Amino acid sequence: MGVVLASLQLCLAVVTAGLPVTANCVPPPPPVLPIPSAAQLAWQRREVIIFFHFGMNTFTDSELGTGGEDPSLFAPAALNASQWMDAAAAAGASLAILVAKHHDGFCLWPSAYTAHSVRASPWRDGAGDVVREFTVAAHARGVDAGLYLSPWDRHEKRYGREVAYNEYYLAQLHELLAGYGSMSEIWFDGHKEENATNMTYHFDEWFQTVRQLQSSIVMFSDAGPDVRWVGNEDGFVGTTCWSTINRSMITIGQTGLEGYLNKGDPRGTDWVPPECDVTIRPGWFWHRNETAKPLRQLLEIYYTSVGRNCVLLLNVPPNATGLVEDADIARLREFRTAITGIFGTDLAEGSTATANSKRGGGFAAGNVLDGSHETYWAPTADVGRRNRYWIELRLPSANSTAGVPVRPFNVVRIQEHVALGQRVERHEVYVDGVAVASGMTVGYKRLHRLAAPVTGRTVKIWFTARRGPPLVSAVGLHLDPYATKRASICTLCRTEV
User: Fold this and answer.
1) Does the model's pTM come out above 0.90?
2) Which domain of life is it from (predicted)?
3) Whole-number Å distance between alpha carbons of 221 and 304
4) Residue 490 confidence (pLDDT)
């Protein structure tokens, strides 16, 4: 936590200079537990991750294989994993995850523990290894790699025999995590059909094995332990979204928990933030007659995932030749250009920030404007849940007599310093005293889209309910030109004109 180091350095400088210690040497506030690990924090800041569903289903025009497919069907004539990284780069993604084995059991690497793999296919004359090519291409491009290894296996004869299959699965985990370099995320998908063979997975053993092999990796499943499913595959998290849940309440693969996973739990004892998995096309695997979602829909997904304290995992399926469609890469590039255009300019820049309470030292209100994740505004110690805190930005046009132009905005960005816990339970946003937005949780990032662009002299955010004093690392204002224009730009009141 950078602010802790900064505070210590400041105090050390004062003492070294022989000066009296002053109120500037104020320690950071205590955390509100639970708090994220360093790996979870780094994962959250990625915001957008790319998923590659590629395998036997790509060649059978299917979404769910039977496990009985002939390996000779797997024949991507032009597979180029470096071109896949073009797709990741187009989306601005720092992490790409490959489905190494889907539910049909076909392995995209030459596993020593099954004949149902690329070794039995004509691709690369049976000497190919998609996982190897994927990880090499990712690392060469500066993209972190991750893998999906399906627990449900419709091909493997050991499936249903508890000890034998868990040994098999652990052996394949070892192959992937010990043989292909550093991995940043691994996916444990708990899905299987209701009539599937009964099988008990030894998740705790799997998780501990992963930790042993790669200690900094984040693990995904319905119950984490590091990242949880969001409860749907449509790209949205609830307007209330806590990064905390009670893992003990969740059985991986159990139905009926979707609402709990989507909203999280303010009383949760475990920090397990949600990942929003959604595909750019209707299907998870490539199908000739499908096309990518339009830009407006992708932007909507961004606001309802990243903009609600989530990470967006966007699937882009390579086609049967082994390439991502040019049209899909173009759509990803269009998406990233739009995000950069909206959020690359902060219209709050040049503002001054004040608050009705300040902890002192390095925790001033102005920290919300410095662009750093590590600094934040902190009020004084909590004096009860009824105490309402606020922070206010006085915009540049209100601070200057030099004719600074009034700049409209229609997106308000709020970010908590989640390294010390998620705190905000309810908040309200006002422009020159007029309510323009309200919501429940904030978390790592909350994006409020306003009904129409507005201008004003001040933006004030009230934190009306919280778990401990709110810690706010950023407040930003942005103009989204892609938003539906429901009104002309007005100077303040949001009256339809």
Assistant:
1) yes
2) Eukaryota
3) 21
4) 38
